[in-house]
Amino acid sequence: MSRYWSALVGTLDPYVPGEQPKVSNLVKLNTNEHPLGPSPLALEAMHRSVDESLRLYPDPASDQLRQAIARHHGVGVDQIFVGNGSDEVLAHVFQGLLKHENAPLRFPDISYSFYPVYCGLFDIPFEKIPLDASFRIRASDYVGEATGAKSGPIIFPNPNAPTGIALALNDVETIVRANPQAVVVVDEAYVDFGAESAVALVNTYPNLLTVHTLSKSRSLAGLRVGYAIGQADLIQALDRVKNCFNSYPVDRIAQAGAAAAIDDEAYFAQASQYVIDERNRLTTALEELGFDVLPSSANFVFARHASIPGAQIAEFLRERHVLVRHFQKPRIENFLRISIGTSEQSAVLLAALKDLTV
């Protein structure tokens, strides 16, 4: 620990992202990137934006992008907040909406591991709510005083990560309706691969905020664009935090490319369906090799073998230049999170697993 660090730094337990190797010839199925490239219209828009106007600051309100998002979701522009990836959006959410005295933030015990990191960074008390024995979120655990928490705010991914299991929209509504005194954040990073979006509920419930990313279903992980949708009161809170931190968050190129990607509905539908179809094929093939695969509505599967430890499988695959994600954590230490790749990448993965399991 450096003597120049502030007291907070030494207490932090930073988030560890999926490995981004700098070698070629790898089948990279560890970070949930889309197997297909971005919309051609998005690429064209970004190329057109690279001109002398880059000497100017970008639109601080990202109006063009917010208008595209509003059209796509059927909401008002004043209901949208944008930032550099959903992780930055979530950082503003944690600061502006989820920090309350004597009311711990609630989220699942097996979930996106950035949540406890942000709690540490922003000094937010929290309570982890266990998933059930089938690794599902139970809406009843977030109703009333079921958890012993003092009706604090709630955040959860839907579909959940890393399990991939989706919560039905009526169960999401049950949680939101039962907690009118607290903000409920539904992190919808993977919603486009088979779950129901809670955006349909935001005009009914002033305490509901949904968070989205263009990194997954829009194939723009390298661009870093995310957004939130909620009633105007919640969005104003995020704007206040943003304007105390970075008043020009999304650059000109990113705004142009993201807006075009949102508008290209045909490519979005085709690319999302590709992932869904490939996920279904991979699930069937893994089950034939003796894996238990949780029902996924995301662009990955969460699977464990009946007899071979997860760490052993992950290392075996790495030796064959196939990367998957292994979490050395309680309850899920034998699971592997496997991103949905191309059909060719799936074939390499399955061939390696056959060598191990058959």
How many β strands by DSSP? 13
- What value does the average pLDDT take? 94
Superfamily at the CATH H level of the largest domain?
Answer: Type I PLP-dependent aspartate aminotransferase-like (Major domain)
Q: Please report the distance between the alpha carbons of the first and last residues.
A: 48 Å
Features:
358 residues, alpha/beta, Aspartate Aminotransferase, domain 1, Aspartate Aminotransferase, domain 2, 2 domains, five-stranded mixed β-sheet, 10 helices, 13 strands, globular
Summarize the structure.
By secondary structure, the protein is an alpha/beta fold.
Describe the structure.
By secondary structure, the protein is an alpha/beta fold. The protein folds into two domains: 121 residues, Aspartate Aminotransferase, domain 1 (Alpha-Beta Complex); 223 residues, 3-Layer(aba) Sandwich (Aspartate Aminotransferase, domain 2). The strands form four sheets. It has a five-stranded mixed sheet with strand order 2-8-7-6-5, with helices on both faces. A four-stranded antiparallel sheet has the order 9-10-13-12, with helices on one face. Strand 3, helix 4 and strand 4 form a beta-alpha-beta unit. The longest helix has 24 residues. The radius of gyration is 21 Å and the shape is globular. The relative contact order is 0.17. The model has no long low-confidence stretch (mean pLDDT 94).
